[in-house]
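Notes continue from the previous slide.

Worked example: a multi-chain complex. Inputs as given:
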Amino acid sequence: MTPHLEAIVNARLVGADGLYTLRMASGRFSAIESQVGELNASAEQLDARGNLVSAPFVEPHIHLDAALTAGEPHWNRSGTLFEGIECWAERKALLSREDVIGRAEQTLKLFAAHGIQYVRTHVDVTDPQLTALQAMVEVRERVRDFVDLQIVAFPQEGILSFPKGPELMSRALELGADVIGGIPHFEFTRDYGVESVKLLMDLAQAHDCLVDVHCDEIDDPQSRFLEVLAAEALSRDYGSRVTASHTCAMHSYDQAYCSRLFRLLQKAGLRFVALPTENLHLQGRFDGYPKRRGITRVPELLDAGLKVCFGQDSIRDPWYPMGNGNLLRTLDVGLHACHMLGIERIESALELVTDNGAAALNLSDYGIAVGRPARCMVLHGHNPYQVLLNQSPVLASVRDGRCLVQRQISQPAVAGWE
Ligand code: FE2
């Protein structure tokens, strides 16, 4: 463990002018002071050198049980979601506790090196042994000094379309899952899909847990389980604890339906996770040209006052062979794909991988404020625009007053070019 820092000096903060000193005591922020000019950092202080200091990145949606298995036992050659699920069904049969723990920890270490300190992972519970789920409960404890991990009981092959699906969901919650998931668009029938949403909401209320549903991850404009989830959340007054992930079909809904849907979404107050890299890769697979992007309506949801965040979904698994753990890459792709490169969108872009992710995870103690845990990161750039242009890994990551990561970024010289 590195020693406790006394302060971070020469920090810029999102939306504020000038330089700041962030003081820390007992692992929490104890003061945030405006500076008059630059300060020389002492040995107990971290010098942000005028770069932006932000609350840590939040990864709201990753499948750690499948991470780093791309090509095992064979590659997803079509690149479709459904071949991915078939590949995974074969790989899942080979899972062991050690296998899951090893790959999950390797991935989380990669995330921590990129300033991510909060992670929500979906873990497939359509497995009678619940091998991955039990291993992930162990991982959550093993990594707690570095990352806060939430575990979603995720029924990859359906709740009502898989033998003993409902029992497996209950068992997963009893074994320690924090969040209940679902996949209504993948159930055998529309009726199963609707029933699965009601069932998972009943379970969530009975166990007083959060909800995060893979919802309408398909280009079918008739896939309308989001309205079912939102109506259930509204009638139970549960909206701030419910996250809808993917909602790709919204990309294909017509405007008349969307205008009715948005009224319900605003009343329900759900959280949304968009997965731009993954869904650009997986969606539009049944289209000729033009091909749909298949990403949910991010700017429209934001403008409606709803919380939307971006996640990676996969790191080198049967669905997506790429990924490096750097959420700035995901953010960059998402901003391009969603037509969000207007300057106001750029200036507020970091909320998509920080504050809005914290809202999706229902975090109560997140952010840079006196009294909160001293968790933050130093980004390469004086403002969000520069950070996005630089695309650098984080310069530092601080957790509970200790430095987890520190790196130097130097400008490469071009030999002979003065
Ligand atoms: Fe997912």
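Summary box: The chain has a mean pLDDT of 96. The radius of gyration is 21 Å.
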